[in-house]
Each structure stands twice: as structure tokens, then as C-alpha cells.
Amino acid sequence: MSRSAELAALIRERAGDKPPAFGMILGSGLGHLAAKVEGVAIPYSDLPGFPHAGVSGHVPQLVIGQLEGTRVAVFGGRSHYYESGRADAMRLPLEVLAELGCDRLILTNAAGSLRSDIPPGALMLLSDHIAFAGTNPLIGEATDARFVPMTDAHDVDMRAGLRAAAEAEGVELPEGVYCWFSGPSFETPAEIRAARTLGADAVGMSTVPEIILSRFLGLRCAAISVITNMGAGLSDEAISHDHTEAMAPLGAAKLEAVLRRFLRD
Ligand code: HPA
To answer: Who is most buried in 66, 81, 108, 163, counting CB within 10 A?
Structure first.
């Protein structure tokens, strides 16, 4: 049995057989939603090979259960490329999700905005992304399945559903392009200007490798950024991880309303 099949069997034993309708990966400062799922929490430490998710603001556990009447599998912690130098750090959790029979994934992250009309506290739905970190989570994958088309990486139907949910909740949900920087240092003002020139609307250090892996595994996905700051050089505020964590709750309430409505409808 493959490692993902073994872990899926262990998870089914604790949380039941029914496939989750959605997987969710929660970003920095956005993990509180996991606590609202009625179900079973499995610490990553019980799941050999799962990342230790060492970034503050992330709770390293998988929660499987009901949220708004929908069965979900929520990853409270993610591992980032900058923690290990491995862009495929989330491959095993995503393989397990697919193994559980789940075929849709919602990702959230904290991000810096490049657009004055999408200020801190706002949400942005990813319409597309730019993988600017200079690596790819499928490097080393030896099968031809590695040549994954990315044309429709951000699922059109899921995005329409999320936009409808936002409208029903009275939450603005503009769409934009997310540019993945490796981190862990924040960008320079020149890098932010470069990203803007390249067509990005927001910058961040996560999500893109998970989207590539998801498409590889046949999962459909959509991602929402919570804007915690303007990109470096675009405002006077100091950028820091503490600031990201302090600002994430501003958008988190809106994000929760949108996600709950989306799951309910
Ligand atoms: N840059 C990269 N990642 C981030 C930022 C940023 O400005 N804000 C929150 N995550």
C-alpha cells in the first residue's frame, strides 16, 4: 500500500468513510475556522510524513467533519517552500485528500496587495497566478503526468460559486492575479514594482505549489487571499509576520462568511 493509502485508511478509521466534499487549507491567522468544524481532529504528529507546519499562526492538525452541512477536510497548517526548500512539502497531505475521494480544494492565504482598490482587510479571489519563486513542486516527478496544463488551474465553477456566495453576504470579492515569491524575507519595493509590471495584483509565499500539486492530482481548486498589507514600498506601514497575523483577523470574518455561504449553497 502507498503511504497516502495507509494514511487515508488511518483517517477513515477515525473520521469515517464518507469522502469530504471539499478540502481546505487555511493560511496564516486564518486557522480559526478549523475549530468550527464538527468532527474529528487528527494532529499531524499522528500522520507520519505530514509537515510539522512550524509557522506561528498555523495549527498542525487535520479536522474532518461537517461545516454548514457539508463534509470538509480542513488542514489547519501548511508547510511552505521557505521552511524546507521543498516546494512539494504539501504533496503527501494533498495525495491523502485525493485518496479520501475528495476532488475539490479551497485554499486561503494572507497576502500583500499591489492595488490601492484592494486594501488591507479586503479579500481577493485568485483568477490566476504567477509562479515567481523559480521552482516547481513537480520537479523530480518521473512520470509524464508532470506535464500538467495550468490553463484552468483556478476553477471557473468554484470561482463563480465563491463570487455568488460573497455577493449574497454583501462582501466584496474582486478577482486578481497572485504572484508567488519564495519568502521568507518579504519583497523589496523594486520586486513589488516588478510584480506589478508582470501583471500581479497581490503577492504571497504560499498556495501556488499547492495549486500545481492539486491539478497534478486531479483536484479542482480555488483560492482566496486575505490582504494584510500593501506590498513593500506602496505604503508607510512596516511589514512583518506579526503584522500579518495581527491584520488577518480583519479579513477573516468576511472570509468565514463567504466560505460558510459557499458550503451551505
Ligand atoms: N508579501 C509576501 N507575503 C505576504 C505579504 C507580503 O507583503 N503579506 C502577507 N503575506
So the answer is: 108
